[in-house]
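// run 5 | inverse folding | seed 20
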């Protein structure tokens, strides 16, 4: 039987050829975790978290529930994913996914995965469900309403600016928010908390920390980045059934093998996207708690996210 080359196989081949350094870095952390240091664990999500996809198949009832929930919450962690070809000089850079984690002390952790390339219900005006598209935009307006706090690994406005043309939010909407660059907070905090660390001493001022490295340094946990350069425009939610158009029937190709591997690939993409949100949030909670404790204030971890700064927006930890 002819060997089926899955989407993950294709990604591995391209990464081996054009992004070998990224593979070696991820393999290094995996080896530390699985071979040499058993106390280093793979990054783990909370057991009772929820992940909800937002696209053209999301029900209006679900959107209404999320709008109501977002109106009660002031703190969000965001991340974004672009579909980037790994070939040298490739120009294909498509904003594809927005991840938003909603923080609430009395609800199950929730992450929204917005597949912006699959928001329009139909491509003809006759059958297009504009009311649902308005609901999706209303959800963003509620999340990005004035004085809410947005946390991101990097500058939140820069991460979201490439999504403006989807007409879900504007630059003015983001200007009304408290935007927090968790990477900058981490870099400042780590240098103070671990002044004798070799990494802290040898790192240049403008050299960025990856989220993977930061989680490893603080929690001894390995964040798997194998699908970082995956096909983020493929339609991750299996209910979209985008994998059907990738299948080319031949006498020797097993459709069920193809289906199983494509679903597994999309599950890996989902895991990576959700892990990033929880990783950013976990670092932010830790930094805030350590900073408050250094001031002699006893705080519960569940209350850290609700700590409000006395200074104006964009203040430093």
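// decoded
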């Amino acid at each position: 039987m002819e060997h089926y080359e899955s989407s993950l196989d294709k990604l591995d081949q391209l990464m081996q050829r054009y992004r070998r350094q990224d593979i070696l870095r991820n393999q290094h952390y995996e080896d530390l975790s699985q071979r040499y240091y058993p106390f280093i664990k793979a990054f783990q999500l909370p057991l009772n978290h929820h992940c909800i996809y937002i696209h053209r198949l999301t029900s209006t009832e679900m959107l209404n529930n999320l709008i109501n929930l977002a109106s009660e919450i002031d703190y969000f962690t965001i991340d974004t994913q672009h579909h980037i070809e790994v070939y040298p000089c490739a120009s294909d850079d498509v904003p594809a996914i927005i991840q938003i984690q909603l923080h609430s002390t009395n609800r199950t952790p929730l992450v929204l995965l917005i597949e912006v390339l699959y928001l329009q219900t139909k491509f003809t005006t006759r059958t297009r469900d504009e009311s649902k598209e308005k609901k999706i935009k209303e959800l963003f307006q509620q999340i990005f309403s004035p004085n809410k706090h947005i946390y991101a690994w990097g500058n939140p406005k820069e991460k979201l600016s490439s999504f403006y043309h989807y007409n879900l939010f504007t630059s003015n909407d983001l200007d009304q928010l408290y935007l927090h660059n968790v990477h900058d907070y981490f870099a400042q905090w780590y240098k103070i908390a671990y002044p004798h660390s070799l990494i802290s001493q040898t790192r240049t001022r403008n050299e960025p920390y990856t989220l993977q490295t930061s989680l490893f340094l603080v929690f001894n946990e390995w964040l798997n980045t194998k699908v970082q350069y995956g096909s983020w425009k493929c339609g991750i939610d299996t209910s979209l059934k985008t994998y059907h158009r990738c299948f080319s029937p031949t006498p020797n190709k097993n459709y069920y093998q193809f289906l199983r591997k494509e679903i597994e690939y999309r599950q890996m993409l989902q895991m990576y996207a959700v892990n990033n949100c929880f990783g950013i949030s976990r670092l932010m909670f830790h930094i805030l708690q350590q900073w408050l404790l250094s001031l002699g204030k006893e705080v519960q971890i569940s209350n850290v996210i609700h700590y409000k700064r006395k200074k104006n927006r964009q203040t430093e930890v």
